[in-house]
Amino acid sequence: MNAKIVDGKALAAKLKSSYSAQIEDLKARGVEPKLAVLMVGDDPASEVYAGQKKKNCEKLGIAFEMDRLSASSTEEQVLAALQTLNDDPTVTAIMVEMPLPKGLDNNKVQAAICPEKDIDGANPVNLGLLASGLPCMRACTPSAAIALAEEAGVDFKGKKVVVLGRSVTVGKPAALIALEKHATVTVCHSRTVDLAGETRQADVLIAAIGKPKFVTADMVKPGAVVIDVGINSTPDGLVGDCDTEALMSVASAITPVPGGVGPVTNAKLIGNIVEAASRRG
Ligand code: NAP
């Protein structure tokens, strides 16, 4: 078997072009989408990510605002800045760049973004709504992972999905979305006994653990679709959580790193900005 490489850049381009039409529609109705990114401190990776968001927004005609606070800001100052953005009627979408400087509580900060503007689905209210099967802002990376599996031809109904990783930002929401699509879902983590025994049962394996090339050929069922969420910086460059080369002869489809989940996550962020603005409109 020679696995099909699922092209994230192509899917991202397709999604962005449909969002572009929706943005035109919104503007025609007098609704102006606007993203505000709050950056606390000057983490270099966050600078790059925020810059990418600015570029993506500008390309699609979405207004962009960057608000900066120093790394020594207190929790009260960060929460006050978010309250100002929550109250600003011209801001339709808010995102806080992570990681926050030491001493600030991620959960408290993310919970302070009003759920309707929370385009990263990071507020616990949005995760709760997702778990309840209600409309909400969904985290972009898990949505991207699911969309890529569907792009590879997966119909989740009745499929056995194994999610490797149980983080609030990726693993848990990915499991909930697959469950909503009628898959039978197993979530594995660092305390899972016989991890390979679990992953070998997966029709769809979603790997999100942050360990370079962790998933090897013997952990994958022949013909499985593998979605590699991991982004790991190594001396050989960026690699995923899967040993892509080894999996090529076992899986039926696999997402590359880079060029898989990453670009679709960026596109889904635009999708959430459009959704937040249309709900307000
Ligand atoms: P995280 O918060 O560190 O969570 C990692 C999860 O993996 C945890 O649930 C952990 O289990 C589990 N885990 C770690 N080592 C394990 C092991 N040896 N065996 C089994 N489970 C193990 O990471 P995350 O934020 O979910 O991110 C995961 C990966 O996705 C990272 O590489 C990250 O860079 C990447 N990512 C990519 C994108 C994108 O746009 N492509 C976006 C976000 C994240 P415990 O809970 O038991 O500790």
Automatic annotation (TrEMBL):
EC annotation from Swiss-Prot or TrEMBL: 1.5.1.5, 3.5.4.9
GO biological process: L-histidine biosynthetic process; methionine biosynthetic process; purine nucleotide biosynthetic process; tetrahydrofolate interconversion
Keywords in alphabetical order: Amino-acid biosynthesis, Histidine biosynthesis, Hydrolase, Methionine biosynthesis, Multifunctional enzyme, NADP, One-carbon metabolism, Oxidoreductase, Purine biosynthesis
Keyword tRNA processing: no
Record flagged with keyword tRNA-binding: no
Gene3D superfamilies per the UniProt record, alphabetical: Leucine Dehydrogenase, chain A, domain 1 (3.40.50.10860), NAD(P)-binding Rossmann-like Domain (3.40.50.720)
One example GO MF annotation: methenyltetrahydrofolate cyclohydrolase activity
GO (cellular component) term, any one: cytosol
Pathway membership, UniProt: One-carbon metabolism; tetrahydrofolate interconversion
SUPFAM superfamilies: Aminoacid dehydrogenase-like, N-terminal domain, NAD(P)-binding Rossmann-fold domains
Catalytically driven reaction(s): (6R)-5,10-methenyltetrahydrofolate + H2O = (6R)-10-formyltetrahydrofolate + H(+); (6R)-5,10-methylene-5,6,7,8-tetrahydrofolate + NADP(+) = (6R)-5,10-methenyltetrahydrofolate + NADPH
Pfam families according to UniProt: THF_DHG_CYH, THF_DHG_CYH_C
Binding, NADP(+): 165-167, 231
Limits of the Tetrahydrofolate dehydrogenase/cyclohydrolase catalytic domain: 6-120
Ranges for domain Tetrahydrofolate dehydrogenase/cyclohydrolase NAD(P)-binding: 139-279
Alphabetized InterPro entries for the sequence: Aminoacid_DH-like_N_sf, NAD(P)-bd_dom_sf, THF_DH/CycHdrlase, THF_DH/CycHdrlase_cat_dom, THF_DH/CycHdrlase_NAD-bd_dom
The protein's assembly and partners: Homodimer.
Function recorded in the entry: Catalyzes the oxidation of 5,10-methylenetetrahydrofolate to 5,10-methenyltetrahydrofolate and then the hydrolysis of 5,10-methenyltetrahydrofolate to 10-formyltetrahydrofolate.
PANTHER family in UniProt: C-1-TETRAHYDROFOLATE SYNTHASE, CYTOPLASMIC, C-1-TETRAHYDROFOLATE SYNTHASE, CYTOPLASMIC-RELATED
Family recorded in the similarity comment: Belongs to the tetrahydrofolate dehydrogenase/cyclohydrolase family.
Protein name: Bifunctional protein FolD
Record organism: Jonquetella anthropi DSM 22815
